[in-house]
Amino acid sequence: MPPRPRGATQAPRLSLQPPQNVAVIMEPHLLDGDNREGEHYERLALDGQELAGITLQECVLEGVSMNDTELRGARFIECAFEDLFAPVLRASRSSWRETFLHSTRWGSAELYDSRFDRVHLDGGKLDYVNLRSSRVTDVLLTGCIIGELDLTGAKATRVALRDCTVGTLTLDGAQLADVDLRTSSFRSINGLDGLRGATVDEYQLQVLAPYLAERMGLRIEG
Q: Out of 23, 47, 84, 106, which residue is the most buried by the measure of CB atoms under 10 Å away?
């Protein structure tokens, strides 16, 4: 393998594998603080339940609704989500590790003070994703439509947004390293100083140029 060019943006380090030999659970009774492993939940409604501190490891969740479910401090390890539905997702201080999410539909996702490690979010529509003060490492987003992605005060390392459409990207106080924004579009970006450590393509740079010039107090005259 040829050496990586000096200064090239590092891609997220992902090697996700789907959970194997999971047991289908028809009517699970999940409680806050539970530790469940190797289970498959399908077409399950967990709306409004108190599941703070729950741990799911090597589990598959397919067509599960978590609207207004209390998931504060929850841990998802080596899990796979398909069609996760939550107009209101309450998962502050949660942990997501080596997990794949496909076709996610979130309204307001309260994920502040959380940790995302080796996570792939593929497709889906998310209105507001609050990752304030979170640690996001080796995360890939592909083909997502996001109304607002709030990374205020977050630490993001080896994160890539590919073919995503984002309304507002908020980066006030963010610390970015190897964050790849190429191929994605943004209507507006708040906290331009937080872009340090990000990679953009030539078209994105042209779009950003007037805002960067204004930030630096440059006058542009033809």
A: 106
Which residue type occupies 170? Answer: T
pLDDT value for 2: 43
208: which residues sit within 8 A by CB, 6+ positions away?
189, 192, 195, 200
Domain limits at 209? 31-216
Is position 18 within any domain? no
pTM here? Answer: 0.91
64 Cβ contact partners less than 8 Å away, ≥ 6 residues apart: 41, 42, 43, 44, 45, 46, 81, 83, 84, 85
**What's the pLDDT tens digit per position in 91-138?**
999 999 999 999 999 999 999 999 999 999 999 999 999 999 999 999
Q: Which residues pair with 135 in a beta bridge?
A: 115, 155
**SS3 assignment, position 213:** helix
Centroid of chain to Cα 202: 25
Calculated CA dihedral for residues 202, 205, 206, 210, nearest 10 degrees:
-170
